[in-house]
Amino acid sequence: MSDNDISRRRLLGTAGAAGATGLVLGAAGGAAGWAAADAPPTPLTAVGSTAAAFHGARQPGITDPQQAHGHLVAFDLRPGAGRREAAALMRRWSLLASRLMAGERAGEGDTGVALDAGPSSLTVTFGFGRTFFDRTSLTPARPAQLDPLPAFSSDRLDAGRSDGDLWVQIGADDALVAFHALRTLQTAAGEAARVRWQMNGFNRSPGATAKPMTARNLMGQVDGTGNPKPSEPDFRQRVFVPDGTEHAWMAGGSYAVVRRIRMLLDDWEKLPLDRQERVIGRRKSDGAPLTGGTETTEPDLDATGPDGKPVIAADAHARISAPEQNGGAAMLRRPFSYHDGIAADGTPDAGLLFVCWQADPLRGFVPVQRKLDRGDALSPFIRHEASGLFAVPGGAGEGEYVGQALLEG
């Protein structure tokens, strides 16, 4: 069979799948990248076939592993849209999210962007901002936990990229799957809501490291070591709203604080390695505390060096953010990195789309951020440019939609 007999479409698809199998296939020789038109289709890799459940007691995208690609988007209800329109929108969005997360087409009018891909660990998470309750005449149902966050000295907030009536978090291990979900939900908003702001993020791709490990941020630091673990006895009470709460519609839910944190990378990268490590309080190579051990070793905050000074400096980020330094306050961080190009002055517009989850932001994010605000050595190298706080209700059961207990209660 000549090369002309090969289906170009099949060839490209097969070559892409072959590349995904890694170096072993590449070492077999160039001919391995070519396949006859009648060759059997290559099955999805583990990355493409992995699916998360939409229906359940809690929404997806909170305790699921971080994905390689993400979109954060906030919507405002359009003028004249109220509780009825919001309920219809959440019903549409929940149905679409359940289909997309299962790797199915969105329905009539599907754009075909994600054709040929599996679910790719797609998760879609929905939340409500403070203003949503006024616009839907549900102000009495608004929790006190949605009171505005206090101002912090590192804030340089852009109001146009902050807050919002509705918030959607999308994550997937395939960029086209993530975009398809974003485009589908944005289109489905129709006349009920319009986009207020949207941000794109990324993480390391699954399989890019020899073994699973905590992600690194754009400063090169291992980021997320101190996260509470599901195996810890107090994990649920730290992250999820308990049953019997004043607002029953939030039982099993969580509160998401969203911050766009720009990293001043030109300044950071001028620091020598030992200075970077002192700022953080951890080794850059493996995330271990400067007092020794491995990444998971608890920092010895009482340890001193030969000079009598603390090994982990008084203003080190790891010390100031430690739960024991903040009355036990903790939150589950699940961020994405971002890069939005190079500014006119040549500096990268890059940093962290910080997303953290907690049962109560007044006991989670706020006390920790106040402490950091008063003397974190990392503060000169970051700038908070956008902010949002959203109530994320519990998950939807089969035949239900997210927020149904609120909107129909």
Notes on the protein architecture:
The protein has 409 residues and is an alpha+beta fold. It has two domains: 3-33, no CATH class; 50-407, no CATH class. Helices cover 23% and strands 18% of the residues. The chain has helices at 8-20, 23-26, 46-49, 83-101, 130-135, 175-188, 235-239, 265-269, 273-280, 317-320, 365-373, 404-407, and strands spanning 69-77, 123-128, 166-172, 193-202, 254-263, 332-333, 336-342, 348-358, 382-392. α4 (83-101) packs antiparallel against α6. The N and C termini lie far apart (67 Å). Keywords: Heme, Iron, Lyase, Metal-binding, Oxidoreductase, Peroxidase, Signal. Its EC number is 1.11.1.-. Involved in the recovery of exogenous heme iron. Extracts iron from heme while preserving the protoporphyrin ring intact. InterPro entries: Dimeric_a/b-barrel, Dyp_perox_C, Dyp_perox_N, Dyp_peroxidase, EfeB/EfeN, TAT_signal.
